[in-house]
Amino acid sequence: MATLLPPPHRIYLLRHAEAAWAEPGQRDFDRPLSQKGFGDAEIVADRAADKGYRPDILISSTALRCRDTAEAVHRAMGETLDVRFVDTLYNASVDTYLEIIDAQDAGSVMLVGHNPTMEQALSALIGKKAMAASVPKGFPTAGLAVIDYAAVTSAWRLVDFVID
User: What CDD domains has UniProt attached to this entry (predicted)?
Assistant: First the structure.
């Protein structure tokens, strides 16, 4: 498991919603959400907001599908949500994801990013066995992992997984 220590006390890992297929000549980076993806992003964002999940800061990849997903969260959680877009999250390693989280001076951080790195980050935080038990089919598009730091056990644990 990762040695990341608080702050933050809560981490939200949100994989971008389903992307549309690339048009001829279109870069992967510029793929928007599909129609289903737009709907799924709205549903997951609304469910998270209904559960009271609201990060202090949302950090998203600058890829279009991640920006679209982050904007759904922003709409659901309110205009005061601090949203930042970071180029390095696109095609980043799991170490980069964890370093970005670790660099934040906030009680809770949400990352909006890509697979397989999102799945690897969840596994690094909660462990491979817990990951396999919690998300046996892998980290789905528009999936939101809610992870808390348990001071008693000095470990990160998955407390919820929100899907559409």
Answer: HP_PGM_like
Residue-range domains of the chain with CATH: 10-162 (3.40.50.1240)
Q: Say which amino acid occupies 36.
A: K
Q: Name the nearest CA neighbour of 141 among 23, 7, 39.
A: 39
Q: Write the CB contacts of 93 (distance below 8 Å, at least 6 apart in sequence).
A: 117
pLDDT in tens, the chain (164 residues): 456 666 689 999 999 999 999 888 988 898 999 999 999 999 999 999 999 999 999 999 999 999 999 999 999 998 889 999 999 999 999 999 999 999 998 999 999 999 999 999 999 999 999 999 999 999 999 999 999 998 888 889 999 999 98
User: 136: cis peptide before it, omega within 30°?
Assistant: no
Question: In 3D, which of 131, 87, 135, 76 has the Cα closest to residue 113?
Answer: 87
> Does pTM top 0.85 for this prediction?
yes
Chain centroid, CA 31 distance in Å: 18
- Return the exposure string of 145-155: e unless at least 16 CB atoms fall within 10 Å of the residue's CB, then b: bbbbbeeeeee
Count of other CB atoms within 10 angstroms of residue 127? 17
